[in-house]
Amino acid sequence: MALAFTQCIEETCGRKQDPKKNAHQCAYCGGLLEVKYEFDPFDPEVLRSAWHQRRLSGEPIDRSGVWRFRELLPFVRPDDRIISLSEGSTPLVGTRRAGWWAGPVHLTIKHQGNNPTGSFKDLGMTACITRAVSLGVRVVACASTGNTSSSMAAYASRAGMKAILFVPYRQISAAKLAQALDFGALVIEVGDTFDQAFHLLREIAAEMDFYLVNSINPFRIEGQKTIVAEMMEQRAWRPPDYIVVPGGNLGNASAIGKGLRELKELGLIEKVPRVVVIQAAGANPFYRTLATGSRELLAVDHPDTEATAIRIGHPANWKKAQRVLEWTGGFCESVTDEEIFEAKAALAEDGVGCEPASAATVAGVRKLVRAGKIERHADVLAVLTGHQLKDTDYVMRHRSSEQECRQRLRVEPNLEALRKALESVLAVPA
Description:
Low-confidence stretches: none
Helix content: 25-40%
Strand content: 5-15%
Number of strands: 13
CATH topology of the domain at 92-118 and 239-395: Rossmann fold
Strand order of the largest sheet: 4-5-13-10-11-12
Largest sheet: 6 strands, mixed
Order of helices and strands: EEEHEHEHEHEHEHEHHEHEHHEHHEHHH
Distance between the termini: 73 Å
Number of helices: 16
């Protein structure tokens, strides 16, 4: 059986830790931890076949796009209770208009908005809450800009736990807040930014015996990394040239990099795609740090972007993400809110909806192609992290008066008025 342990990521430390302890920081230096394995020998073809066969299974564990790849998650014991909502198994969607708009590139979308609570967070939460159950946890907590909170609330409810979430006051979309409340979470509105809420949560968590499920929890990363196995299987194990993700707290980029490394070491892929992180210009500490070559994070104390899911100024996982970009030869870019809106509109023309933060990926691809950093006609896989209905207020704010006149008509309830209204908007210009 594979051996699992946690280890400090700091090069000056790197000490192994006791994986049975509820810890997310190194006991010696305070650095972040990651879960490591000494895997049993695998035959790649046998493993691929087993994963494929599970897609035909009716067992609940096999319907999950996370637990179907459970050989990659050997921290779970055979008798552990798995907390799942059949997460994962999200589609790869080809694009035509959006690909030409962004490049032209061969653009494929991995849409994580099709998860149970509407975001990629579910992949990490099923692993994290399963881990919490094995430790006998009663109360889980997170700080959130929205998606983590709704995911945590759903999976905690499934497990029979109490969920407490810390959110910045009036800085979370109503749709995401409604999800968390519907699942029974206790909501603490505190501070003006995610970073303030997260700092206070970390200060009080140990005192109140809360189990943190933010992405500094290394077991969150374990669930999220399975997206790589799923997307490679969907592509017949032919990696793309680039995998592009939005960057907020940078757990997603960290997880994708970890997944790629393990698949490469296990002989499941030969080529490693370049990982690209896209941040919003008003919340781009990782971009600024890499652009200046700083050895320390250049934090943004007052992050400002309408892409609320990535409105984070002090990303906790920046060192993990930095290692991923160095290993894969990737890079980071920053895009404006206007560029994000244009990308969201381009995706909508292809029938693909997403929350604003997701569209940052496609905006970044366009900018990087124009700058010559991504070659024209490259094979690009963009991860969309959240569902279109996660932030409906954003859509309504960005409808122009002209669009409103074309798309929303108030008509008197009689046939003649209806006929005139339809003729006026459907008439083909001469």
